[in-house]
Amino acid sequence: MALKDVWQAPVWQIVSRPWLSFHAWLRRPWRRLPLLSYLAILGPGLIAANAGNDAGGIATYAAAGASLGYELLWMIILITVSLIIVQEMCARMGAVTGKGLSELIREQFGPRWTVFAMLLLLIANGITTMSEFAGIAASLEIFGVTRYLSVPVAALLLWWLVTRGSYEKVERLFLVMTLAFFAYPISAVLAHPDWGAVARHALIPSFRLDRDYIFMFIATVGTTITPYMQIFVQSSVVDKGITVREYHYERVDVIVGSIFGDLISFFIIVCTAATLYTRHVTIETAADAAQALIPVAGPYAGILFGIGLLGASMLAAGVLPVATAFSITEAFGWEKGLSFNPSEAPVFYYLFTSLITIGALITLIPGIPLIQLLLIVQVVNALLLVPLLIFIVKLASDPEVMGRYRNGRLFNALAWATVVSIGALSILYVIVGVLAPLLGIPL
Amino acid sequence: MTITTRDISTVLFYLSEVLGVRVTSPTGERLGTLRDLVVQVGTDPFPKVKGLLVTVGGIPTPVYVPWDAVATIGPSGVQLATSRLDLRPFERRDGEVLLGRDVLDRQIVDVAGRRVVRVNDAQLAQYGRVLRLVAADVSTAGFLARVLPRRLIEGRLTRKLISWSQVEFFASEVPQVKLVIPHDKIARLHPADIAQLVEELAYPQASEVLASLGEPLAADTVEELEPAVSTAIISALPPADAADILEEMDPDDAADLLGELPAEQAEGLLKEMAADEAAEVQKLMTYPEDSAGGMMTTEFVAMPEYLTARQAIGRLRQQKDLPDQIYYIYVVDHEINGRLVGVVSLRQLVTAPPDTKLREIMTREVIRARPADPADEVARTIAHYNLLALPVVDEDDHLLGVVTVDDAIDVILPEEWQRRLPRLFR
Fold this sequence. Notes:
Chain A is mostly helical. Chain A has helices at 9-15, 20-26, 37-51, 55-68, 73-97, 101-142, 147-164, 167-178, 183-190, 195-203, 211-224, 227-239, 247-275, 286-290, 294-297, 301-332, 346-363, 370-396, 399-402, 409-439. The A-B interface holds A 1-2, 4, 9, 27-30, 97-99, 103, 106-107, 110-112, 115, 165, 238-243, 245-246, 249, 332-334, 339, 400, 403 and B 104-107, 117-118, 120, 138, 140, 143, 146-147, 175-176, 199-206, 226-232, 235-236, 259-263, 265, 416.
């Protein structure tokens, strides 16, 4: 299989974090200028990592910094390790088998588990698509455009661009827009954070059995290790035609990519903690979140933030629906891809269109709080992540699938530790955040 | 129940209907549960079932029951001819495939339909004492039959079956056992069709197909593949096999492909290739991809101007490895190290009186390109002058290669359009 029917390389690879240009470049060392090599790795790497932060990511990290200060910094470091472990497994599976995750689930676990897994994926990606529309709405509200105009226009535009196959041409524009988020590290420095406190919170774990704290904690997990990202990583490895022989380059991609991506997340938290938390600003709207960029952009902070959020949201909103439709139709063996027309691949187009339509419609519900919506989506993503991770770890450690490239013993222990801790955290959240309030138990 | 009786002795049923049924002794006591069927896949168009896998008691590892020990099998259950079972855990043997584990849910090629499909269910036929795999069910109905409870769907499904004799299954799906599957059905297809199938397969299966084709056909197929697919296949094949295919390819296509691979791997493959082919490819690899040098092939026909038309045609007949396209014969002033002085089309050559010299019939104004010329300019020149090929020369007018119209189209047209163009122009 190949995703080329859906996508020519760039978007996939950028959205799935591994580093397209960095990778292509590493593979051809004879064309490399030795001196510039590190710079050339950093450039596209940073851009790609940055694009991995979609609307939900930006909103979550900003809210985490604004509401909890530096408190979550230690878990960003810890979760980077988990992210590397998970992405490495998916990339390795892609390189060893040449197959996508949904295909492997179908082949190894049979049709019933496939239906279950695809249902999870549909929900996770459906709500994430919705969160991208929430991002579009929130960003354009900064510029005074009502969501009742921005969301339908964006939905139609994206549908049209993707089905016409012209999305590729505009994705670069969206990508450039997300460069606005590089303002965060600069703004963080200019805001003169208490570096001592930053270091302390980054290195010494702390935990509170507090509903808001656990909510933010699990939202951060959900947005850092999103279900769709893992599927994309594997698909993009397959799509690039990477085999086990070239896999060692891809492994570097995954590790560097995860670290860069989370580095930006780290600085978003530092920045919002230093600017918003200290002044007790809670993030209710995108305009509130934009204030974190005042140290670097002054009166233009809102514009800068709006542009970045719009670019990130459009980037993901263009890829998610079509990729989800592809994964699901692939698992069931239906006709798929944009090279077919709607009458040839009805399920594919139906799924794709309804994901966009439903995602857009929900954000139009009058009075729905956009930022809250973005955060809740990340929490649900985290809850759905656990079963998906179990599939991933089981597949990656199966000798029949992976042969001698299966997880090593230590690696497998770490992988299961990740699954168990996220699982335990999810259960804790359901108890503290959902059941306790429902039953009226005070915490 | 979907048992159909075609004649007295043929009984048909689906794999999904028998997996999980009770296995009983000759006297009817329950012995265990049917978990899988073991078939011998290979040359037989309809593979024979060799035995069953049965779980006994609460033990999850199945035991093997040879087909001879089976009295009856069907959706209502399995009855054995013996109540004595060999309770040693089942171990896989070469040449054997588990129908449920290895065939269900896997991708196969429907050769007649020229597409890659997923096996949703399998149909079995018992004729006398022999049980065979006869068809793959690729319909959604087959999928639903395995998801929904049997009561809900009984008799309401329309299945779509593909005869197993029209199907290619892949040994690389079952790397645990050694399997030899000749892919002769795929080998009968056109290279462009094979390429389309190969692009839909995962690379281990794709390289299995390529390895089975034989070099000339494999080379034609690889030339049709997209770069991501062809590089994956070439790097998955044993280097010696990959080198054989690369030697058979057009040198420009081979150079493009090697240029996409990591340096050390490309060098390794060049070392495996025949020295002269490798040298040619290596020379092409030094030109940037998006230049005339990067686009050109070194396979062309050049002849000295003093030959007669008869002699020229004679040479064409004798030449062993004639390039695919010989619409133009380039005319040079000397046999060895000659400069380009003219061009004769194949049409001009065959219609000219046999004793006319090439210099008398050739067109002297030859449109030409330099190796460093940008690709889009070369493509536009070819389109503007309606050429089928454009010669590339060095500063002394020595012929280095030609850019053919198919490579020019790759530059100008989006990929979707290329697929719709007739074969001649690709």
